[in-house]
Amino acid sequence: EDHGVLIIIAIMVGMLFVQPVIGMLCDRFGRRPFILVGSVALFTLSIPAFIMINSNVIGLIFAGLLLLAVVLNCFIGVMASSLP
After folding, report:
1. What's the whole-model pTM score?
2. Where are the alpha helices (DSSP H) in the chain?
3. CB of 20 within 8 A of CB of 76?
4. Helix (H) or strand (E) holding 56
5. Half-sphere exposure at residue 42, Cβ-oriented, CA atoms within 13 angstroms
6. Confidence check: pLDDT of 44 > 90
7. Residue range 14-43: average pLDDT?
8. How many other CB atoms sit within 10 Å of the CB of residue 24?
9. Which of 13, 64, 69, 71 is 20 to 30 A distant from 44 in Cα terms?
10. 3-state SS assignment for residue 37
11. Which is more confident, 1 or 29?
């Protein structure tokens, strides 16, 4: 429990720097590929990520949260230009 908050903070700080990169790649390749890849990846990788999060190994918890964060960035980086 003590490490959980620190891991989530580290993941969120990482997402802060990755999100603009995803937005720039979206401008180059288009929104649709990122939304499709993000959807398929979230569908297929969510169960393995939650299995890693439920383990008691700190490295696996970090990897599971990182996996979900990268997939989530595919959506968040694109939504600013997709919603309007």
Report:
1. 0.79
2. 2-29, 31-54, 58-82
3. no
4. none
5. 14
6. yes
7. 86
8. 11
9. 13
10. helix
11. 29
Is pLDDT above 70 for 1?
no
Q: Which residues contact 53 (CB under 8 A, 6 or more apart)?
A: 60, 61, 64, 65
Cα–Cα distance, 15 to 37 (Å, whole number) = 17
d(CA 52, CA 66): 11
Write out the two tokens for 57. Answer: 């190994």
CB 52 within 8 A of CB 67: yes
Q: Is the dihedral of CA 39, 8, 29, 82 positive or negative?
A: positive
Task: Find out whether 74 and 41 touch, Cβ atoms under 8 Å.
Answer: yes
Query: Cβ neighbours of residue 56 under 8 Å, at least 6 residues apart?
Result: none
What's the whole-number average pLDDT of the chain?
86
| Across 3-18, average pLDDT | 85
DSSP state for residue 57 in the 8-state scheme: -
Which parts of 30-57 fold into alpha helices (H)? 31-54
